[in-house]
Amino acid sequence: MESQLNEAKELWSQFIAGLEGIETAETCDMFFKPMVPLALEDKTMTLAVDTPFIKDWIMGNYAKLIEDRLSQLHLAPITIKLVVDPELHKEEKAAAKQARTKQISAEPEQSVSETKEQAKVAAPVLPTREDPYQTLSGRVFNPNYTFNSFVMGDSNHLALAAANAVAEKPGQHYNPLFIYGGVGIGKTHLLHAIGQFILLKRPQTKIIYCSGSDFVQEVVEATTGCGKFDNTGYNNFVQKYRNNCDVLLIDDIQFISGKERTQTELFHIFNFLYEAGKQIVVTSDKLPQEIPDLAERLRSRFQCGLIADIQNPELDTRVSIIMKKAKDAGFSISNDVAMYIAKALPANVRILEGALKRVMAHSTLTGRPLTLDYAKQILADVCTTKTETISVEDIQKAVSDFYHLDTKALSSSCRTKAVARPRQVAMYLCRKHINASFPALAKEFKRKDHTTVMSACKKIASLLGKEDEELIAEISSIERALNK
Ligand code: ADP
Ligand code: MG
Hints:
This protein is α/β, with parallel strands linked by helices. It has helices at residues 2-17, 25-32, 52-61, 63-74, 90-106, 108-122, 157-168, 187-201, 212-223, 232-243, 260-275, 296-303, 315-328, 335-344, 349-366, 372-378, 392-403, 417-434, 438-444, 450-465, 469-483, and strands at 36-41, 44-49, 79-84, 177-181, 207-211, 247-251, 279-284, 306-310.
């Protein structure tokens, strides 16, 4: 047993050492180095990884490379087997996270450079192009929205890795890829990054990129008057998607909600492309099951690939994003100013970017150096809220204090009205203020199924919609406590 383990370890370390120059340092650090060899038995090497997603991703993208290299080194054929161990590297991850959080609150200077360093290591690297790519739909990709300029954090790790996998091998994994998350947190950025990455590697790829509302409009135009004189418009529309599309990227797919004809056309296009092995990526601000008036058959198509969520970035990622955006704009910003903006504006990255542009413009136009005091002065009107980020724990505490409950009750299995209602309120407030995904909240509240969180949020939202005065007063009071 022991010798098998040693042999596996020895072989694996030779494999890692031999990767230099074959794979990028980023791919090695992100995927290969964290894998742990467990055994080498009957020509099978067993390796542990920490999540099912990483397991799938490695099996889909790298199994052959790993097996070929291991077989060469071992001088005999080797196959690999991956097992998922969620406990893997748990201590290192917790320690790294704690160190990051500690440094951020104690020493902004150090934490910023550290998180920046991490972001640099994690992002897949690609050369950039000067001229913007144009897609078949006439839309132009934003040259600033690439994988290089996307800062990785816990909040977007899964979506970034999936987007990267899809861009590397379109149509081979995660089809469709469904990226979902709140407003202004990088969904469009990732979609453009996928498109530009594919065109950079395979310039002949036919990409159609449009928004959900463009698609609705296109269907209306193609079908209006259809059949009266001739079907040319409609035929052209169908041919475009059938014969001229290797990759279909649709941004903000939620706009097809309630549009029956559009959904029918999309369903047929989807089936055709899917069966032909073409890649489909869509983004949405809602999960497929949350999009109202969406045909069941389309909903189930969206659910059959990978659903990757992006959450609101954590403080350290927000700081890294500000530093990177400022640097890319050729502006030097101090760590304390970046930290101030990141703490004051937790809502989403777009707002963060707006604040950054504003301070950069003021400083450039007046010629005044951007000190912390000057930044505070410029942003006085937008940064009126509390400068701390609200966490799930803060909300759970504020809610349980208000209803005189033990905080633990909110995550318990108790279903009495006295607990169920505060739990629903807490879930609703988490969704509202933190923009956390339903699955993430299900975990925080120890619920097996995220649909519980969804219906809680719906329930509270609907009561508020009906102007339930008692509830409105309760929620305002809790929100005031949170903002103190
Ligand atoms: P969404 O489509 O989710 O509403 P966008 O993709 O338009 O959001 O992102 C809004 C802005 O925030 C863009 O300028 C984008 O570059 C930036 N952004 C969001 N997340 C990141 C990130 N992780 N790294 C770098 N920039 C980001
Ligand atoms: Mg968008």
